[in-house]
From TrEMBL:
Gene Ontology molecular-function annotations: monooxygenase activity
Superkingdom per UniProt: Bacteria
Positions of the ABM domain: 2-90
Protein name: Antibiotic biosynthesis monooxygenase
Keyword Oxidoreductase: yes
Keywords in alphabetical order: Monooxygenase, Oxidoreductase
Naturally occurring in which organism (per UniProt): Halobacillus litoralis
PANTHER family according to UniProt: HEME OXYGENASE (STAPHYLOBILIN-PRODUCING) 1, SIGNAL TRANSDUCTION PROTEIN TRAP
InterPro entries in UniProt: ABM_dom, Dimeric_a/b-barrel, Heme-degrading_MO
Amino acid sequence: MFVVDSTVIVPEHKAEDLINIYKKRSRCVDEAEGFHSFQLLQNDRKPGELTVHLEWESKEAYLNWARSEQFKKIHELEKRYPDQELQGIVPKVSKYEVVAT
């Protein structure tokens, strides 16, 4: 299994706005081959810290998604958020190979 976490830090007063964006997400990734799950995590001590947690069958499955046209379209939309405070936020991406369960 392969895990990808993308963490952003937004002003706390914008956290709920970002959560709502993800609640209405396109769900295109859900159809990707090798995709297992999506979770949006909120740090319980830092409400403005949100992490998109994706689980994949393999690194190859994730890379196929990351190179797809659907991925490009979704991430292009992020650059056009109408909210200026959310528009320029760059996530810290971490990738992990699951080595034990």
